[in-house]
Design a protein that fits this description.
Number of helices: 16
Largest sheet: 9 strands, parallel
Structural class: alpha/beta
Number of domains: 2
Distance between the termini: 26 Å
Strand content: 15-25%
Number of strands: 16
CATH superfamily of the largest domain: Metal-dependent hydrolases
CATH class of the largest domain: Alpha Beta
Oligomer: single chain
Shape: globular
Radius of gyration: 21 Å
Bound molecules: guanine, fe (iii) ion
Helix content: 25-40%
Length: 437
């Protein structure tokens, strides 16, 4: 892959949110060409229009018969929970005690952290995900391991050390001061290093003292461009607990607000049990929501209301939330999102779903200037999908007439078997072997 090359195939990307802008938001080239210069998009359009203008010597990777989309953006995931995906029987608080804390304890060992980080990044790429906003653990070295693995793969990744100084086992507890100092050192080491960005990461309000919450807000304010990630309004027991711990707060979200933890580049997972005042406050501050359908169903947490978030103008991305989430696959996650909306009497069109997984997710992370679609100058991260990857898919696709129908079947039936290749900054970072089928 020299400085200038191209890929040819069916290309789909979004210029805006199709729910607001309709067909004008969708760019679709049945025989398209994506021209890449130094890892960035140079041009994207119909092959018949672009090829005659380009040198015959331009190397072109032929993906005809496959669908090329911008790399998926997973706006909420825990790399350290890779080994507890699919753990039986509990809702949030008991699940944390029984499965999560014991598995996160193992990240005190940097070798374990490095091994899981490598697996995790490979698994993201195998699923077509090229950007994620990820929790590490309370151990600073767990962040080094994750950023190290992502840097080797040249991925755009946002991550941070968990801040947790109460209501957790001793072996996972930091203090307000050590959490602050360790986060600061990690920001200096990693934020803005190549494609890596740092997120201040208070786990959730119950596991941080007010002193730690205050310092987390301070870290966020002191480092322009740094992110903040946490969880809010996921589970009813959790919400009651927060009300006891913070009796003066108007709501769970208001706890974070009181400590300066809302704003652009602040991203909250779940956001199920919010009221409209909370949603308005998120919209007004530019705070984003991460919708985690497989996790919300798996832990029995509740049904996210994307319609209301949209009406009130809140930015929304989609997250797998592995290990409470049950799949690394954004296709599977979109399929479950559709079902969550169905249960709430809403609809998720296939176009809106794929927008959410690409440009919408990038926008929710304030990264839509860099990734999310194929406008010239964007970083050329993309996934190459095989819509005939299984006999059932091939059979079902054969009876689809429109692009919308094919995309819908893809998100309902597709998974990592559909990912033929994933490219990062133009270059292949994952290619399916025959074993992937
Ligand atoms: N709330 C606090 N910590 C967690 C976590 O690890 N996973 C989920 N789903 N919710 C949380
Ligand atoms: Fe989570």
């Amino acid at each position: 892959f020299g400085p200038l090359h191209a890929v040819r195939g069916e290309i789909l990307h979004f210029l805006a949110d199709p729910a607001a802008h309709g067909a004008r938001a969708v760019a679709h080239f049945p025989d398209g060409l994506l021209v890449i210069r130094d890892g960035r998009v140079a041009e994207c359009g119909p092959a018949a229009e672009l090829l005659p203008k380009l040198s015959a010597a331009l190397p072109v990777t032929d993906y005809r018969g496959k669908l090329i989309l911008p790399g998926f953006v997973d706006t909420h995931i825990h790399y350290a929970q890779t080994d507890i995906i699919a753990s039986y029987g509990e809702q949030l608080l008991a699940w944390l005690e029984k499965y999560t804390f014991p598995t996160e304890r193992r990240f005190a060992d940097p070798e374990h952290a490095a091994a899981v980080a490598e697996f995790f990044c490979d698994e993201l790429l195998k699923n077509g995900t090229t950007t994620a906003l990820a929790f590490a653990t309370v151990h600073p070295a767990s962040v080094d391991a994750l950023f190290g693995a992502a840097r080797e793969r040249r991925m755009r990744l946002i991550a941070g050390k968990v801040l947790m100084d109460r209501n957790c086992p001793d072996f996972l507890r930091d203090t307000a001061e050590t959490g602050y100092m360790e986060s600061k050192a990690l920001i200096e080491r990693w934020h803005g290093c190549e494609r890596l960005l740092y997120a201040v990461t208070p786990r959730f309000a119950p596991t941080s003292t007010p002193a730690q919450m205050q310092l987390a807000g301070q870290l966020f304010a002191e480092h322009p461009g740094v992110y903040l990630q946490s969880h809010v309004a996921e589970n009813r027991g959790e919400i009651e607990w927060v009300a006891q711990l913070y009796p003066k707060a108007r709501s769970y979200l208001d706890v974070y607000d009181g400590f300066g933890q809302l704003g652009a580049r602040a991203v909250y997972a779940h956001c199920i049990w919010l009221d409209d005042e909370d949603r308005r406050r998120m919209a007004d501050t530019g705070t984003a929501m991460s919708f985690c359908p497989t996790s919300n169903l798996f832990l029995g947490s509740g049904l996210f209301d994307p319609g209301r978030a949209r009406e009130l103008g809140v930015r929304v991305g989609i997250g797998t939330d592995v290990g409470a989430g049950t799949s690394f696959s954004m296709l599977q996650t979109l399929g479950e999102a559709y079902k969550v909306l169905q249960l709430g009497g809403q609809k998720l069109s296939a176009e809106s779903a794929f927008h959410l997984a690409t440009l919408g997710g990038a926008h929710s992370l304030d990264l839509d200037g860099l990734i999310g679609n194929f406008l010239p100058g964007k970083e050329a991260d993309f996934v190459v999908l095989d819509l005939q990857a299984t006999p059932l898919l091939a059979r079902r696709m054969a009876s689809c007439e429109t692009l919308s129908e094919r995309l819908f079947v893809l998100m309902m039936l597709g998974d990592d078997r559909c990912v033929a290749a994933t490219h990062v900054l133009g270059a292949p970072a994952y290619r399916a072997g025959p074993a992937a089928r």
